# Entry
Amino acid sequence: MLPFAIYHEHPDWFRPLFMELDRRGLPVVRLDPRAHLYDPSDSRPPYSLLFNRMSPSAYLRGGIQGMFFTLSYLTHLERVGLPVVNGLAAFTTETSKARQLTLLESLGLPYPKARVINHPSRAVEAADGLRFPVVVKANVGGSGAGIVRYDTLAALTTAANADQLDFGVDHTALVQEFVPARGGHITRVETLGGKYLYAIKVFTSGESFNLCPADICQRADGVELVRAACPVDAPKTGLKVEGYTPPADVISACERIMQAAGIDVGGIEYMVDDRDGRVVYYDVNALSNFVADAPNVVGFDPFRRLVDYLETRAHKPELGAWSLEPDNSVRRTKSKIFNRFTSYKLQATSNKLQALSWRTHALRLLATCLRRMASECRRRGDVDLLGVRQASGAAERTDRF
# Structure
């Protein structure tokens, strides 16, 4: 069996994944996006599958070159047909908060009101009509990078005039309403193969925007969690977490988001806006770091199910976020649309053929009639093909025919 290629740059986040792969004795190759190469003419990469774990926050760790390289590399791998988990579509969604809002808008799902800008001079204008506080978010973020809160228009104006706004690596940013989370928590829904896996509530003071679930050190009841994805000396975030099952409509919405984005493994973050009680979705994440000490929080080990999924994808490369489950509603809808479209085409073709058949039949009858008339005229000799009798130098119309 060809090895799984795990494409990642963070040294700690994926320790539990490698532990599970090693436990099963599966061959693995680690690829570092920060210093990689590929041959565009290579049509047979030596892997059974590539699992893309490139992080949009890599630029904070000296990996900015890997971010843009990854776009080209994934394009190449998909062209040659290598199964890629979290491929190009997933990565382009992951690396653009603006695209994420467009996705949510296209699905008719609510999100905190926002504007997208590419120059500090437009920040104050963009905030017009928004409720303060607002946050300015770098379009390419991750781990809370590039997010700053402004409580008043004056504070935002001062920062913009002083050129203090962080637009990140692609010089694009969101000016977005800051939503006070009801209950002091946000909810993160994890999905696998485009289907719900589990959810957690993350309790936060609202002062930090880094809500990485692998970094959370306590359950809501105070039980310490084992953070296997982090170095032993990593600072504790002070965040608390508890397992949770969202309402069915929220689960359905999260599955729709992931399937539309082509994200095989990822998380959706949402909250209830304390100002009006609305559910708002605000982050689509394809780099899912499962919650620390998951069996102690959600009752099972998600990394085992993840590796199950990787093995399935390696043997059935046609599967993706929208087609893993045989009863998937998206697949059924697509099938219905295709069958109905095909039926309409066949019916239209049949109607055309039927109409053509009747026209052909009529022409054949007319031709037969004309041949008989011509034959009769030739036999009598006194009527031409127009049915005109020639007699006594005058022409008179015959109504014989």
